[in-house]
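Subject: sequence -> structure tokens, single chain

Hey, anyone have a minute? Need the predicted structure for the following. Not urgent.
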Amino acid sequence: MTAVVLGVATGFLAAQLIWRMSAGLFKAVVLQRPNYRGHYLPTGAGIVLALAVATVEGGRALAAAAGVGSVTGPGVARLGGLFGFGALGFIDDVLGGDAERGWRAHLRALAAGRLSAGGVKLFGGGVLALMLASAAGSTASGGGGALRLAADGALVALAANLGNAFDRAPGRTIKVSLVVWVPLALAAQGGAAGVALGPVMGAALGLLPGDLGERLMLGDAGANALGAALGLGALLTLGPGARLVVTGALAVLNVAADLVSFSKVIKRTPALDRLDQIGRLRAS
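Reply:
Had a minute. Here:
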């Protein structure tokens, strides 16, 4: 558990430092988007998550070379997933628009022979999720061949897409991720998967003040990567049966997100609304 706490702390510090040093880059006009209140903020700032975790893993690698600690397989897989899903999300942040949102819109565009920015993210995320599930195969329990690989890949891809679905208000995706991460970390019991997720959640916490303060937006670059990291964590922590249950739940939530506004549901549920409002700026 000490390693998990240390990972959270170093991830937090790395994200804070990188954001403070790179904030000027995100002032580029191409990254300015209106938030839910119509205030223009830099989007795609979630790419800092991958950079922060890479910094932590680089330090861990140096320490391991010096005989202190080790570099875990789950950590390397998670880092690759963060950069991959973060890059796909960043493409959608920069090139995508509000005209085509949701997986159904992207599939309609594909059926018409046109690949939207979101379609690139959808297709690329599916392929990347399969690669990550394959790379994690030696760690995740249970056989099953191609069908098992497809199910595990779907878990990661659906988790990534659901992260995007919650990214409709300041801090919401990070708060939901924290709620998911706590029981996942307890289930991992300080194992390699739990240690690997520590820097991710620490980096997310490092960006939370800027997200809540409406100084940045995670964008798909952050929400996509954060969801994928948690999906990979579930893949590496849970048994085959539990993974199928989680995949089914994620599928239902993804369909619901395209049919129902999560923001309206949260607003109509007092307890959820109070949690959603914590730390957020008052409307002006």
